[in-house]
Design brief:
By secondary structure, the chain is mostly beta strands. The protein has 5 helices and 18 strands. Bound molecules: zinc ion (ZN).
Length: 282
């Protein structure tokens, strides 16, 4: 299933994308797509609904983040060997974990706003993993059974805030609008091989990032297991799993976001995001 939330910010309704790619309204069946709908039993109930029985949604409404009420938004740094090389960083021996403030989460096509005094805004297409059931000290073997599904994430970053103010990254990762998620939450039954997905990003129509999840240093299963050794993962938590090469910081000379830029990014089977970059406003 491809689950979505659509409509005005804060007023999103649940929906699904049918086999013909049309948006259908799920609001008569569930209140929202959030923690209560992400477990295997709840997803199985949704799967039993005939999409043709759901009302078609007219027009092209705004898409919101496909998961409501995300608790933790956890990110993994330098998880592609070739990206670590372009960043001039050694290959991590253990996953690098940081948090993106959940106040940065927004819809996949909402504008990205450069924060006040930002001069080094950057992009990172990433595979997002949505947790479906509580995971605490899970083994790598069992890890994927705790995953509800997958989505596209742009781990928008401010490199000066991230790298030039001290050793931790969070201040350059959680600025307002730095967490576009969606358009779809694709349930894990539709993604047979999470380590075989192409991912890409274009800036103003020019291809910047081209990668495949097969070159991850730590697999999705490893990451879910690893993070669960340090904190309990809850339904509706999201782990974004690192970016392939081609970020602005790695260019020679570096390229950073400016007002008017357009980012377009996607992952095989998970849909496409488009964001216009806008200047800071209160
Ligand atoms: Zn990242």
């Amino acid at each position: 299933m491809k689950l979505v939330r659509y409509g005005r910010p804060g007023k999103e309704k649940p929906g699904l994308i049918d086999a013909q790619g049309r948006l259908r309204d799920l609001s008569q069946k569930v209140a929202d797509i959030g923690a209560d709908q992400l477990g295997d039993a709840a997803l199985a109930r949704l799967r039993k609904i005939d999409p043709a029985s759901l009302p078609l949604v007219r027009g092209k409404p705004r898409m919101g983040c496909p998961v409501a009420g995300i608790g933790k938004f956890i990110a993994i740094g330098l998880n592609y060997a070739d990206h670590a090389a372009e960043a001039g960083a050694p290959i991590p021996k253990e996953p690098i974990i940081f948090q993106k403030a959940n106040s940065c989460i927004q819809g996949p096509d909402d504008p990205v706003m450069l924060p006040r005094n930002s001069v080094k805004g950057d992009w990172e297409v990433e595979l997002g993993v949505v947790i479906g059931s509580r995971a605490r000290y899970v083994s790598q073997k069992d890890a994927l059974t705790h995953v509800a599904g997958y989505c596209v994430v742009n781990d928008v970053s401010e490199r000066e805030f991230q790298l030039e103010h001290g050793p931790q990254w969070d201040r350059g990762k959680g600025c307002d609008t730095f967490g576009p998620i969606g358009p779809w939450l694709v349930t894990r039954d539709e993604i047979a091989h999470p380590q075989k997905l192409d991912l890409w990003l274009e800036l103003n129509g020019r291809r910047m990032q081209t990668g495949n999840t097969r070159t991850m240093i730590f697999s999705v299963a490893k990451l879910v297991s690893y993070v669960s050794q340090f904190m309990t993962l809850m339904p509706g938590d999201v782990i974004t799993t690192g970016t392939p090469p081609g970020v602005g910081l790695g260019m020679k000379p570096p390229v950073f976001l400016k007002k008017g830029d357009v980012m377009r990014l996607g992952i095989e089977g998970l849909g496409v995001q488009t964001q216009q970059v806008v200047a800071f406003r209160r």
